[in-house]
Amino acid sequence: MSADSEQRTIRCLVAKVGLDGHDRGAHVIARAFRDAGFEVIYSGLHRAPEEIVQAAVQEDVDVLGISILSGAHNTLVPKVIEGLKEYDAFDDTLVLVGGIIPDEDKEDLLEMGVAEVFGPGTPMEETVEFVEANAPER
């Protein structure tokens, strides 16, 4: 068996949480993840934090990418992280945030456990390489 055939597929949930209705970025990253060989699940729009947590747990994802442009990241992301912790799934899930996040909020998100924050214009290759390098081993 070759090394390529032994490599596992990284499972990703791309999530739109809250009332944010702009999903172009989420579709772009979902496509980039798919093209990189990841298995991608898309949450659809307007999901509550609890719905995102349930989907991540039920789908047993390695990566949870939260796309948020509404400015509610300081309220919604902590709820998602708390929910993952309640299900004992946080340590096994790489949590990423993408969207328009002010610099002063980025550090707070990282301190609460977000692995990385990707802003507009981040090259897709950079995001894919980060996931490949940091997705939890299962």
UniProtKB/TrEMBL annotation:
Pfam families: B12-binding. The keyword Cell wall biogenesis/degradation does not apply. Keywords: Cobalamin, Cobalt, Isomerase, Metal-binding. Residues 9-138 form the B12-binding domain. One of its GO terms (molecular function) is isomerase activity. InterPro entries: Acid_CoA_mut_C, Cobalamin-bd, Cobalamin-bd_sf. SUPFAM superfamilies: Cobalamin (vitamin B12)-binding domain. Its cofactor is adenosylcob(III)alamin. Belongs to the methylamine corrinoid protein family. This is Methylmalonyl-CoA mutase, C-terminal domain. It comes from Halolamina pelagica.
